[in-house]
Amino acid sequence: FDCGGTVISDRYVLTAAHCASKGNNVNPAPEIVRFAELDLTVDEDEFDIEIEKITRHPAHRFRSSYHDIALVRLKEHLRFSAVVRPACLWVDVDANPSPVIATGFGQLDVADERGSNTLRKVQLDVQDLSGCNNQFLGTRNFPNGMTDNQLCIGSSRGGKDTCQGDSGGPIQVLANPKWCIYHVLGVTSAGSACGTMKPAVYTKVTSYIDWIEGIVWGSG
User: Fold this and answer.
1) Which of 10, 2, 3, 12 is nearest to 55 (CA)?
2) Which of 68, 155, 161, 166 is catalytic?
3) In terms of C-beta density within 10 A (0-12 exposed, 13-18 middle, 19 or more buried), how is residue 92 classed?
4) Which of 46, 84, 96, 103 has its CA 20 to 30 A from that of 174?
5) Is 130 a catalytic residue?
6) Is 167 one of the annotated active-site residues of the chain?
7) DSSP secondary-structure letter at 205?
8) In the chain, what are the domains?
9) Cβ distance 152 to 82 under 8 Å?
10) What band does 169 get if pLDDT is binned at 50, 70 and 90?
11) Bond before 177 cis per omega within 30 degrees
12) Has 77 been annotated as catalytic?
């Protein structure tokens, strides 16, 4: 699996727009979503549901990393259980809580070619946008630098990061530990060398609440 995602309803998964490739022999469009997967080497509770449609944000372009957010509509309704349940969306536009948690099956370092067999998590810190702006301004993915629709997140001590294969996965905040209620603050989008002192870029969910709600719970 090249990307991750977050269940936000019984019919939709939130992910990154660049994960919804145009569909060709090199980068075929995704066809299924796997749920309840914790260890790729063990057959337990995991199951797949086919994808009916992927809706990228209308402002997203594959040549850049702006508006890197998409919604995956499943062909059938998802049954929630003890191991599969939806996350909430972070809606406070004035607050970016830190630290946060990132999860995924991505590579463990830049030399890793296959990624992790187990779902892993890492605690990271929300940083000032200037940290990513200094790093990415003028690059192909960020010709105009960072925007307020993005988050700059990394580890102040280095060695902790998301990596290739983690794209589309969530940046989470545990808002209610007693009930294990997670809120999705961001979507893993782009970075450079994994596990260095350099932060990475994540799509800020609060900037797209109206768009998400209009499709998932509205008439969209």
Assistant:
1) 12
2) 68
3) exposed
4) 46
5) no
6) yes
7) G
8) 6-84+209-217 (2.40.10.10), 88-206 (2.40.10.10)
9) no
10) very high
11) no
12) no
How is residue 27 annotated by DSSP? Answer: S
Report, in angstroms and rounded to the nearest whole number, the Rg of the chain calculated over CA atoms. Answer: 16
> Token pair of 54, please?
């992927």
Residue 219 — pLDDT band, cuts 50, 70, 90? low
Distance of CA 124 to the CA centre of its chain: 14
Q: Which of 18, 60, 67, 183 is catalytic?
A: 18
Q: How far apart are the first and last CA of the chain?
A: 28
Q: Which two tokens stand for residue 29?
A: 């469009």
Segment 104-144, tens digit of pLDDT: 999 887 767 778 899 999 999 999 999 899 889 989 999 99
Banded pLDDT at 179 (limits 50, 70, 90): low
**In sequence order, what E strands does 36-169 have?**
47-56, 70-74, 88-89, 100-104, 120-127, 150-154
Q: What is the identity of the amino acid at 60?
A: H
In whole angstroms, give the CA distance from residue 166 to residue 141: 18
Token pair belonging to 170: 């969530």
> Which one-letter amino acid corresponds to residue 57?
H
* Cα 59–Cα 15–Cα 44 angle in degrees, nearest 5: 165
Catalytic hit among 167, 183, 189, 207: 167
Query: Average of pLDDT values for 28-42?
Result: 90
The H or E element that residue 210 is part of is helix 209-216
